[in-house]
Amino acid sequence: MSLLKLTPGGLLAQGDLERLCAALARGGCSVIPTDTGYMMAVDALSEASIARLYTIKGRPETNPVHVAVASLAKAEALAEVSDTARKLARALLPGPLTIVCPKRAIVPDSLVAGSGTVGSRSRMAIGSSSAILRRSSAAFSATKGMRPVRA
User: Which helix (H) or strand (E) holds 24?
Assistant: First the structure.
């Protein structure tokens, strides 16, 4: 495990950014800041990474996870985006919008809990998280960075 420190502006040093992206590509897991808090990030196209996410979070495998993407083009690579969804995305992204569309074959069923649909969100990433989403070749599963609390 490595702890990478952010600058006061919320940025990672260039070398740390490259190390983090490489670690995620190798199946690693990270917690990164977003517009709504923190996101636990793993490679959304890796079955092993998805299984690790569910285990770390204590999340039921029947609860699908959406993906964070850097662009509409990345969302279209993962889902069959309708014309209506495309228009909404162009008007509202980046921003707090999750587009749910039929998934493409590349998206593992385990990520979407067998639902056949995937939610894509272009988070209003802050600081380094924006750079991570842009630089990575993969999408990230996107779920709150904390374990659920059960009463």
Answer: helix 14-25
Q: Are the beta carbons of 99 and 117 closer than 8 angstroms? A: no
State yes or no: pLDDT of 117 exceeds 80: yes
Amino acid (one-letter) located at 96: P
What's the whole-number mean pLDDT along residues 15-29? 81
Residue with tokens 């793993």: 42
Instruction: For residue range 122-141, list pLDDT tens digits in order.
Output: 765 555 666 677 666 556 77
Helix (H) or strand (E) holding 75: helix 72-78
Which tokens hold the place of 55?
């285990």
122: nearest Cα among 84, 146, 148, 91: 91
The reported pLDDT for the residue numbered 127 is 58
- Whether residue 139 contacts residue 118, with contact meaning beta carbons closer than 8 Å, is answered with no
Please report the domains of the chain, with CATH numbers, ordered by start residue: 15-144 (3.90.870.10)
